[in-house]
Amino acid sequence: MRPKPLRRAVIRLLAPIAAISMVGAITSQASATGAATPADVLSFLHQISGNHTVSGVHNKEPLAQPSQYTAQAHSITGAWPGLWGGELGFTATDIANRQTMIDQAKTEWANGSLVNLTWHMCRPDVATCDFNGGINGASLSDSEWSQLITNGTTLNNDYKAKLDTAVPYVQQLKDAGIPVLFRPLHEMNEGWAWWGGRPGPTGSARLYQITHDYLLSKGLTNIIWVWNIKDVSGGSGSAASYYPGSNYVDVVSLDPWVNGYPTSDWYQAIVNIAAGKPISLAEVGTVPSPDQLASQPLWTWFMIWSDYLTSANSPARLQATFNSSRVLNQGQFTITPGSGGGGGGSPTGAITGPAGKCVDVRAANSANGTPVQLYTCNGTNAQSWTVQTDGTIRALGKCLDITGGPNATANGTLIQLWDCNGQTNQQWTANGTELISSSSGRCLDDPAGNTTDGTQLQIWDCHSNTNQTWHLPT
Fold first, then answer.
1. What is residue 92's predicted lDDT score, i.e. its pLDDT?
2. How many Å is the maximal CA-CA distance in the chain?
3. pTM for the whole structure
4. Exposed, middle or buried: residue 18 (CB in 10 Å: 0-12, 13-18, 19+)?
5. Element housing 144 (H / E)
6. Which residues of 252-274 are buried (b: 16+ CB within 10 A; e: fewer)?
7. What are the pLDDT digits (tens) for 371-430?
8. In this structure, are residues 70 and 108 in contact, taking their beta carbons and an 8 Å threshold?
9. What CA–CA distance (Å, rounded) separates 454 from 382?
10. Sequence-separated (6 or more) residues with CB below 8 Å from residue 350
11. Which neighbouring-strand residues pair with 435?
């Protein structure tokens, strides 16, 4: 019988901010069976970054046996991996078994594991294929690539039609309240697959952007976007030339197949590209040891690649890692619905202030650094804020942030939108109608009471005047 999750108290916005202590297993307030969002999973990953890593195992084809390697890990270690990896498939037989795989994903989530999907996708102009010739060694010519990334061409339409085949299955996960860590076009900095080996803004990164935008247009807001590269033998210098940009990526990941475990330059390259986003070891052959994980503490999960579980690892090595106090298996954590934005009883709606105007994200732009301003209320997502139990206030999947970080505490420091990172310049306490910054003790402020649309907000000494009066959603 699989162990039940433990529990802990959560921070509430109206209470004083307190530090979270992690000793041994992380515990959580709510069951993973509740409806969760990508922001909830990302909040959890930020919480464990630097101190814990989730164990994971991939389950490759055949899709008719979608948890065979997860079961092997349990039989060897006595622990169920904290992350279950599945595959969308490329052969006709496996594609026909996608529902079996999705049903297993639902079961794994209900049992308390994170859900990860990989897709070895055939060339856009091929419906089903063998791995060799249809994926590996199936490169596109430069002319074909140009068509692929040009909207409305035959290859572009073929690619989107192939994406459409996955939509109903990911939608099922959304309907079940299951966020999915999705890693499309993996190892794009190497040319073994038709989608890889093309650096620069019109290369592999552009196809990732197209994939992101198309699936988002289909309403698949439950996807956590995992960008992935490999530790190629040429070094990490070109890694950033494959990055599609922070607006397209939630997690930055590495497959260390060349070195077995990331060298320091690859680890630092991933950390630098992530710029505060969670990072992970999306595929490993040899399971990382507890000492290796401690030496590179920001990896938030590792995923052992299927048959490498036994072909590249001894039972003793697997047991040492899975039973380490640093590693989180199923039953040692859960995802708290509402902990990262929306749902779970977290109040969501407009924040109104001076002259009845709303706190607004300028032009509904979710890019880091976008000004947060006062604007006439219009009911858009740019004015929909979720008040979190961890002290953050979130819109468009990001946090109300004081520019310059926790040490930027001067009067007049401006307010912006930024990736949620757990720092105190993103934590707020409500005191009556005031919103007080945890990093500075100063209040959210409308400069000089200027109610002109587009006035960027700031922090200022608290004084209880109307330009510091805010009404939160209830």
1. 97
2. 69
3. 0.69
4. exposed
5. helix 142-148
6. bbbbbbeeebbbeebbebbbebb
7. 999 999 887 778 989 887 678 899 887 899 999 999 999 999 999 999 898 888 998 988
8. yes
9. 13
10. 358, 359, 377, 379, 383, 384, 385, 473
11. 430
The C-alpha atoms of residue 131 and residue 159 are separated, in whole angstroms, by: 17
Q: Tokens for 417?
A: 């939108």
* CA separation for the pair 122, 337 (Å, rounded): 35
The span from the CA of 434 to the CA of 471, in Å, is 9
For the record, the structure tokens of 339 come out as: 């902990």
Domains of the chain: 38-328 (3.20.20.80), 348-468 (2.80.10.50)
Q: Which helix (H) or strand (E) holds 437?
A: strand 434-437
> Residue 371 carries which DSSP code?
B
Give strand pairing partners of 116.
85, 181
Q: Residue 81's Cα: distance from chain center in Å?
A: 19
What is the Cα–Cα distance from 251 to 369, expressed in whole angstroms? 19
Separation between Cα atoms, residue 449 and residue 82, nearest integer Å: 50
Give dist(CA 289, CA 177) in Å, integer: 33
What tokens appear for 453 in the block?
């649309």
pLDDT bracket for residue 324 (50, 70, 90): very high
Letter for the amino acid at 40?
D
Q: pLDDT per residue over 343-363, tens digit each?
A: 334 677 889 888 888 999 999
Q: Rounded to whole angstroms, how far apart are CA atoms 229 and 239?
A: 7
Q: Are 169 and 163 in contact (CB under 8 A)?
A: no
High-pLDDT (> 90) share of the chain, %: 74
Say whether the peptide bond before residue 66 is cis (omega within 30 degrees of 0). no
Positive or negative torsion for Cα 160, 66, 132, 309: positive
User: Pick from 176, 167, 178: which is nearest to 219 by CA?
Assistant: 167
Confirm if 73 and 81 have CB atoms less than 8 A apart: yes
